[in-house]
Amino acid sequence: MAQTLEKTLQIAGIGIIGVFVFMTLFYLLILAIDKIFPYKEEANAKENSVKESTQNKTQT
Amino acid sequence: MNTLLSLGDNLQTLWEFTGFANAELGHIIMILVGLLFIFLAIKFEFEPLLLIPIGFGILVGNIPFNEIANLKVGIYEEGSVLNILYQGVIEGWYPPLIFLGIGAMTDFSALIANPKLILIGAACQFGIFGAYIIALRLGFEPNQAGAIGIIGGADGPTAIFLSSRLAPNLMGAIAVSAYSYMALIPIIQPPFMRLLTTKKERVIRMKAPRMVSQTEKIMFPIVGLLLTAFLVPSGLPLLGMLFFGNLLKESGVTRRLAETARGPLIDIVTILLGLTVGASTQATTFLTAQSVKVFIIGALSFIIATVAGILFVKFFNLFLKKGNKINPLIGNAGVSAVPHSARMSQVVGLEYDPGNYLLMHAMGPNVAGVIGSAVAAGIMLGFLG
Fold first, then answer.
1. pTM (predicted TM-score)
2. What residues have CB less than 8 Å from B131, skipping those under 6 apart?
3. Nearest chain B Cα to A31, which residue?
4. Can you tell me the ipTM of this complex?
């Protein structure tokens, strides 16, 4: 009985730690993406205009 | 005389084929449950897209037909239409397709703009593991306990996916429980949100989220997929499809595919999933003491998840500077019932500060909860599958 409880707690413990490890790594990776590709208004405007012109070409 | 006898026999046979001759109390109870689901969906608009197919499925699954007549109408009769459609549930095809649609309709900007909110989505998974421990203590087998625990993830497709793998015999009870409690979020969460927060905490105003570039939005699903593949490969069927759907949405060049995934595809799969899960709740397999226990543990798992999310935010705030504090009323939103739990943050927040709009902040932990519950399901599958 005590062994079962210990195993249960082990799985639950490893499980929740696993979720936190995954989410923490994801958090750090999102921070890294922000550092590598920061939001710039001009860049975004350019990106949008490129997309629009591509769509126009596709339509024609 | 013989003609009369023959007519009598034929009428007797006809009677034996009718539902009246085969109906038992269990059938009647389940038919009433199905009607209740349909009533709640139409009258109060509680999750109508799910409750109507499930409710109708419960009616279909509990038609008291003559089982030995080999009519091939029951969901558990090999070769019946329902049985063929049910394979998508048993084999786990439907939940990943639903995740594809969810990915194609989800905007992760709130999470990318304030990534620390992702940890709230992790904290709420205490509901899953707490329910797992309770289920084991109540006498369920480890694989059954794992499947029951996932109710705390508040994610119907994840619950169906995991229960189809770990405890197919409990899938009806688990699915109905998960969807029922998702519909009851406006009743379950607010009391705990008020109980665990002070008036001062409830009026915390969070910084407006920053702008997010298209490149970041495109990188997000790719990074997420790679992280899943390397860290929790057992979560790939769900998370892989979620991130794939999101890439279709954010790439900007696959608009038609994204629209199909978040429109007709998810609608078709939802109909098939709801109908067959509902039909799988046949009285003989559903009306058991185990189902009652599943419902009780399901309620507890939602409560644990909500409490864990709120307490985690309060704990996290101890380490944050004054201007960066998080309003603990968004802690409940880590429970991944999108967007109901995020909407509750907004509703309760507005009660205490009519100018404090928490919805945009709450969407971060809300979508993180979807990822968190799928990761937890992957871990459970890794241990118990």
1. 0.87
2. B148, B149, B151, B152, B297, B298, B300, B301, B304
3. B115
4. 0.87
